[in-house]
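Cross-check.
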Amino acid sequence: MNLHTQPALVQDRLYLRAPRTISAARHFTRDTLDAWGRTSRQDDVLLCVSELATNALRYGVPRGRGYLLRLLTYDGTVRVEVHDSGPGLSRIRERAPGWGLLLVDGLADAWGVLPRAPGKVVWCEFRGLGC
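Predicted model, tokenized:
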């Protein structure tokens, strides 16, 4: 058992299927990172939130549904998760479109996709962001 591990802090926000929510998701993320004192690499995190939210709106959120943005911080790591209820799993495409996940891949320390019922969770992590 690691006695030095701090419990995770978590903030969630549910957004409806609308383009204006991308800006709202960035503002929510900025406010949360500021409150947590995790301002290092904030621009990278905000860009990845924009890309993941945009992808959720374009490909993962059916009409009448929304997406969940979950932010977590633990042990100097910030994790961004975007939950949607659409089919399929996100991936980097060999040709455009698909640049968004290439940006996430280049900026984040790790990223991936997890299945959920229904839909998926696309996540990325930024490590070494101590207070």
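Residues 110 and 125 are 5 Å apart (CA to CA). The beta strands are 9-16, 66-74, 77-84, 110-115, 120-126. Passed to J.P. for a second look.
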